[in-house]
Amino acid sequence: MIPASQLCARPRRESGPSIPRHLRYTWDHEWLAVDEGDATVGITAFAAEALGDVVHLRLPEAGAWVEAGESCGEITSRTAVSGLYAPASGRVLEVNPALADAPGVVNDGPYTVGWLFRLRVENIAGALSADAYAAHCAHTQGDCR
Q: pTM of the predicted model, to two decimals?
């Protein structure tokens, strides 16, 4: 989701304790919360902080099919445009209506009010645990030094 050059340009706060343990994560800094075959999808605090102030979102439409690991939208901040990748395959059930008029909500609460869309999950490929994601973030930060 976020090029290494952008990750290096901003300080990071996210560490093990601030990464919700009940979620699953992708290498591209998306998260998903799966509940009985449906998933809520968003970007991590790590991604939100690296992007900076989000000013526009292009999200998949309700009813659209998304494929795990493939591009399904874009996130535009004041400084960059970043791709959004589906963390799982499935049909989009709904898009967060609060983001239409206030995309910056993603920065305010990436794990809560800033969720992006909900998905009827058909396949989850390569999702990371919170510990694996924390290690990934630490490695990414280490590469930036």
A: 0.81
